[in-house]
Structure formats: C-alpha cells, structure tokens
Amino acid sequence: MAKLMQSGQIANYNDTAPTFEDGEPGSLQLDPRGNLKSTLATGLRYEDDEVAAFDDVYNYEVIKTATTTTIKTGSGFIKEIRVLGGTLGDVSVFDDTTGTTNEIVPAVTPTAGMVLKKSCAFSTGLTIVTAAATIVVVSYR
C-alpha cells in the first residue's frame, strides 16, 4: 500500500520494517491501517539494555599534541574521530584506559580531513595515542 502525503511525499506500508544504512534516506512508513508511523527515537542503551530516548548530543575532545589521551573511562559510543591537520603522525585508538590493548584503529599516519572511525561502541574506555602534534577531534558519548 502506498499513500501520497500532503507534502507530496510517498509513504509505504511494509510487513517487515526496512533497514537503512547510515546516511541513506529513508522513506515515510505507514501502519497496516494507512496511518503515518512516527518514532520517538527510542532504543536500547548499549550499557545496560534499558530503553532510553536518544538525542544526537555528543561530547567532544580536541587533541593537539603528541600524547596518550584517555577520553572516557567505561563504556560509550564513538560518533566520529576526525583528523583536522597539524603535524601528521601515527594515531591509534584503543578500547582501554592505557592505550596499549584492544585496538579499535591500529596505528595509522592519517591525512588532513581523514575520518579514523565512525559509529563504534567501546566497553572499557576510549584512549587515543598520537605520536605527533596531529589535531584530532573526537565526538563521543
């Protein structure tokens, strides 16, 4: 069943909910009676499987020196780790608090503008190791 909405968009009914990749535009969805479905952006929290409403609010950290930086202790979620520039040297990302085990991103010499990681959960902690004064911006929660 398809229905033309007032805005000129087409809405569809699917027996099974469709899945979309990140950045892929979704279509409006209908329930079995032809009513427009809406979501309240709810989901299961990674940490404890409790139902929670998620907004798109993240913390951020900027690293500008050759250092080991523990961004967060405990579990969390990486939205994006992006290299802005600076003196480009090896950057590593770890799921720990020491920067030595559980590599998320092994040592890589990035280019300016490079995204090192997107959409990734971590469980022990988030630590970034920079071997030079590479400017790295980390969005996380």
List the helices and strands and how they pair.
Elements: E1 2-4, E2 10-12, E3 28-29, E4 42-44, E5 51-53, E6 59-63, E7 67-73, E8 76-86, E9 91-94, E10 103-108, E11 115-122, E12 125-130, E13 134-140
Parallel strand pairs: 2-3
Antiparallel strand pairs: 1-2, 4-5, 6-13, 7-12, 8-11, 8-13, 9-10, 9-12
Describe the structure.
Helices cover 0% and strands 48% of the residues. By secondary structure, it is an all-beta fold. The chain has a domain at 59-140. The strands form four sheets. It has a four-stranded antiparallel beta sheet, with no helix packed on it. Strands 7-12-9-10 form a four-stranded antiparallel beta sheet, with no helix packed on it. A three-stranded mixed beta sheet has the order 1-2-3, with no helix packed on it.
Q: What does the overall shape look like?
A: elongated
- Percent of residues in helical segments? under 10%
Strand order in space, largest sheet = 6-13-8-11
**Rg over C-alpha atoms, rounded to the nearest angstrom:** 20 Å
Which ranges are low-confidence, i.e. pLDDT below 50, for 5 or more consecutive residues?
A: none
The rounded distance between the terminal residues' Cα atoms is: 39 Å
How many H/I helices? 0
Q: The biggest beta sheet, please?
A: 4 strands, antiparallel
Mean pLDDT across all amino acids: 81
Order of helices and strands: EEEEEEEEEEEEE
Q: What's the assembly state of these chains? A: single chain
- Determine the structural class based on helices, strands and strand pairing: mainly beta
Number of strands: 13
Strand-residue proportion: over 45%
